[in-house]
Amino acid sequence: MSTISKKICLFGDFGVGKTSLIRQFVECQFSDEYLSTVGVKISRKLVNVFTKDLNDEQNLQLLIWDIEGSNKFKAVAQNYFQGSKGAVIVGDVTQPETLNHIREHIQTFLAVNPKSYIVVALNKSDMIAAEYLEKIRQMYQFTDKNNILDTYITSAKTGHNVDEIFQALATRLI
Amino acid sequence: MTQVENSISQSVDFKPEEAVQIDNLVHLLVELKIIESPEPSFSLFPLETNYSNEFVTADIEALQLAPVTIEVCEAYLESAFNSRQNTPKSAKIFEEELENSIDILTKFEENIENSEDALQKLKDILVGYELAEITNIIAKFEQNLIKIEHQIYDPKELINLLLPCISELLRLKIVESREEIVQIIAPIIDQTIRSRTEQNRTSMSQAIAPAIPLAITQQIIVAPEEVSDAIAPAMGRAIKKQIEIEQNIVVDALYPIIGSTIAKYMAETIRAINRQVEETLSVEGIKRKIRAKLQGVSEAELILKEALPFTIKAIFLIHKASGLVISDIQGSDAQQLEAEMVAGMLTAIRSFANDCINQSGSVTELDAIEYGTSKIILEVAGYCYLAIVLQGESSKKFILKMRQTFSQIVKKYGNLIEQYDGNPDTIPVEIHTVLEELKGTDIQQEKKQNQLSPLLILGLTVISTIFIPWGIWQHHNGVIRSIESKTSLALTSVPELAVYRISVQVEHNKLKLTGLLPNQPLRQKAEQIVKITSPNWLIDNQILLVEVPADPVLTAAEVKRVTAVLNQTDGTAISAQYSASKVVVEGAVNRIADAQIIAHAFEQIPGVKFVSSAVQVQPLRIEVRFYFQPNSANLIKANLGYKVQQVKSFLNQHPNQYLKIIGYSYDYTGTSTSQKLALTRAKAVQQALIELGIEPSRLQVIGRTNLPPGIDATHPLWLSRCVVLEAINKPF
């Protein structure tokens, strides 16, 4: 069976750990060193997903566009969203304003790709006490829209939920 | 209805005395048990009883009223349906009549009440049931009537009433007279449509929508000009709007043609510029041109081209929006590029360029990305773009082919490409095949069609500028020379002219003949020969006529020959001396005519200008003389044999000569005796000759008495007694 390729976008505010998430997902590595992404960086990862009837496995090649983070001076380049079937929108649990921008990001993305699916990742969960995490997660549920699959608490450092977010997204792309 | 009236009026006129009769009748009826089942008995009655009277009949008629009336009413009702206009009126009448009958019945009832019980009973028996029936029927009538009225006067009801049959009505009418219906409807149909459109635009649109495309198609067939005129003004706006709505579809639609159109335009423009540049003749321009031609485009470029042959490393067909690879063609031997990553990054770069650089709103595209000696050519269409990774300089031909291939793909599989979602199975194999073919356009083919180097072209140009005129000149000369030699050959192959030197030259498109010829005929002959050999040339005949001195040797020989020939003639004995074109003839001839002939013959000899003739005319002589004894005419025997033979041989030698035999007998007196003797002497010789076989006609005898020629008195006498022979040319 041939491998189906899908483009997904990974974006969020500046410095929330998008590249780290990808690095963890693709290379299973983490570095504390901060490297700012310029423009876009494309990574790919082959995943196996079960088809909807769960009878068959499908190879899925995820082409993950790690898009340069936005800040107050610069919005996310919407051109990069084109043709994307899914998105991981990342927020930083240690920076509340990045979480607040998530809804805005969702809207921006859905404006370009109304039929795409979104997973919200609240990253850097290793830096916050576990008891707050669930509360925060509850606060940033965007399940009012069908396109939004779920909100995950993730940690690029520990790898917590990293594979899960991509897997969850991949399953819906088939 | 009159029946009903009659029956009722009759039933009303009851008299008291008739009651008894009724009673009887009642009894009778009871007995007959008719009462229990009045209806069948009514019908049977006329058959089974004979004593029926008017009243009963009237009664029965009255009883029968109900069914009759119902039928009638039904007929009315029906008529009411069929002719609406009449309905109200007739219904009214009908109603009135019914009311009348009801009144009468009421009266009748009252009468019966007033009468006795029996009557009451009878009434009950006779009409009680029927009455109820009638009342019911009337009630029903009333109801129906009200209903009909209601139906007629209430428009809603009327509509309901007419509704089922109106379509049928219309249908029938249309079948019957279509034209009429058309004429009726025609004046309002536009208004109808308009008002309907105003009422409900959507539904009207839906109603006519399916017909519109067909209608337009039809109209395009019928009157294309009208359609064009109608659509044209909105065309530009429509395209503009479409571009606003969905730019990609317009790009895809135009892509296959716009590339070639622009390419064509550009090629023409460049050609025009080139022409201008070429026409500029300045020292700098020429210098530059020579430099460019010597070096080709530029030396560095040439070296680079040779060092780095043009090769295609990979061809990617990429989905424009998502950057997913639709088709990935790479050489199997070379290092494989990560198609997905390359495609993604290229897409991102394109997006970036479009986003950040193209800010003025103008639609420009990233054409190529160069890195070192490699290059990525990007050819963009509506929903996809082609990225070709190549090394070296791509040729124009390849670019052209690439565009053709790409537009072919876009045209054919545009929709599939647009909807591509990452599943490679949805992409037809043909796309890969076509792109593989494109990749096959490699350097070998390019090299084969490599153009000639400019240096070579320049060299060839120089050489050809020198050699072509020279060649033409050579050719021209060759032609001339061949004509000249051909003509000369023709002239020399004619014997008369062969000995003369005639030269032929082409001068100002004329064949000039020069040389010397001895006479006009030869000159003309030469010209004629030239005309035949070179019919297309004008001839300038410059041949001079000259007198040729004859060859003295030949002339001398000829003189000798002529002399010899002339000496053959009888009696001609000449000798000729030739010196310095003068001939001196000496000798003797028989006749003067011969002397003239001789002179003329020598004059004819070429080279002889003057003939000096000293020819003497000497007739033939036979020196034979026969001598006789005195007074004798007998031939001396000694003479006979020898001398006669001599004469004979002379005559035989000269068969044309005649012979005069002259006998002499000298006698100065001239007596007849002497005369006779002389003649006899002559005859004797004649006789002797005849005897030897000489033809007598050739011999003439003459007798003379004078001295023979050459003899005088001093000579001895015997010499005078002789016969002398004289040869003559003509017969006697």
Question: What layout of secondary structure does this protein have?
Answer:
The complex is a heterodimer of chains A (about 170) and B (about 725).
Chain A: E1 4-12, H1 18-27, E2 40-50, E3 57-67, E4 86-92, H2 96-100, H3 102-112, E5 117-123, H4 130-139, E6 148-153, H5 162-173
Parallel strand pairs in A: 1-3, 1-4, 4-5, 5-6
Antiparallel strand pairs in A: 2-3
Chain B: H1 2-12, H2 18-31, H3 38-48, H4 54-82, H5 87-114, H6 117-153, H7 155-176, H8 178-199, H9 201-208, H10 211-222, H11 224-245, H12 247-279, H13 283-295, H14 299-307, E1 311-319, E2 325-330, H15 339-357, E3 368-371, E4 374-380, E5 384-391, H16 396-418, H17 429-439, H18 443-448, H19 454-492, H20 495-498, E6 502-507, E7 510-517, H21 520-533, E8 538-545, H22 552-567, E9 573-579, E10 582-589, H23 592-604, E11 610-617, E12 621-627, H24 637-653, E13 658-664, H25 672-691, E14 699-704, E15 722-728
Parallel strand pairs in B: 7-8, 10-11, 13-14
Antiparallel strand pairs in B: 1-2, 1-5, 3-4, 4-5, 6-7, 9-10, 12-15, 13-15
Helix content of chain A: 25-40%
Counting structural domains of chain B, the number is 5
CATH class of the largest domain in chain B: Alpha Beta
User: Which term fits the overall shape of chain B?
Assistant: elongated
CATH topology of chain A: Rossmann fold
Instruction: Tell me the strand percentage band of chain A.
Output: 25-35%
Oligomer: heterodimer
Which blocks of ≥5 consecutive residues of chain B have pLDDT under 50? 1-12, 37-68, 83-87, 299-307, 443-449
The CATH architecture classification of chain A is 3-Layer(aba) Sandwich
What average pLDDT do the residues of chain A reach?
88
Through-space gap between termini of chain B:
185 Å
Largest interface: A-B, 20 and 21 residues
The name CATH uses for the topology of the largest domain in chain B is Beta-Lactamase
Number of domains of chain A: 1
Strand order of the largest sheet of chain A: 2-3-1-4-5-6
User: What is the percent of helical residues of chain B?
Assistant: 55-70%
Structural class from helices and strands of chain B?
Answer: alpha+beta
CATH top level of chain A is: Alpha Beta
